[in-house]
Amino acid sequence: MSEATVQARPGGRSARVRAAVHRAVGELLAEEPAEALTIPAIAARAGVHATTVYRRWGSVAQLLGDVATSRFSGDVVVPDTGSLAGDLERWMGDVATDLADPDVLALMRATIGSGPAGGSACTVDRHAQLGAIIERERARGGKVPSVERAIDALLGPLYYRAIFGGEPASSEWARGLVATLLAAIQV
């Protein structure tokens, strides 16, 4: 067979199993506390054998990390409004809306509680998005905070409120964090 006739499979059994297992995790988290998640329960809900799940993910913590990484990658678009304030306000509003979803919160809490790598699986894409917004403004010649300072000022309070607070922050409240950060870097 020549190289020209070889085609990659766009899905197949592996993609179907991954989708079914990810869906099963979401459904179970919506129905039960995270402590009730077990590989046999997830496998049964997904319609696959438990050894398939063990072989691919190894543990509930690794599976939750994969589900969270998949869920939090690319679901919030990095805006380009032409200004740092506009970009951050729109982005923070979108992130706050995402964090207000009960299913998202259940996944975040379960993933964070599953082990040391859990928090990273929930935030790595957000950090990259924030870094892209700041770098774009830097390229435009604007005054920008460090990515670390922006994470502390914007995502820290937003995630704290979502995970530990009684109810998630509103989009308006999240956008207010932007004004506070931008006022601090103008000093």
Overview of this structure, please?
The protein is mainly α. The protein contains nine helices and no strands. Helix 4 crosses helix 6 (102-113). The longest helix is centred in the last third of the chain and has 22 residues, at 118-139. 28% of the residues are buried.
| Share in β-strands | under 5%
User: Which structural class fits the helix and strand makeup?
Assistant: mainly alpha
How confident is the prediction overall: mean pLDDT? 88
The biggest beta sheet reads: none
Radius of gyration from the alpha-carbon trace, in angstroms: 19 Å
Distance between the termini: 66 Å
How does the overall form come out from the CA principal axes? Answer: elongated
State the helical fraction.
over 70%
Annotation field: number of helices: 9
Task: State the total count of DSSP E strands.
Answer: 0
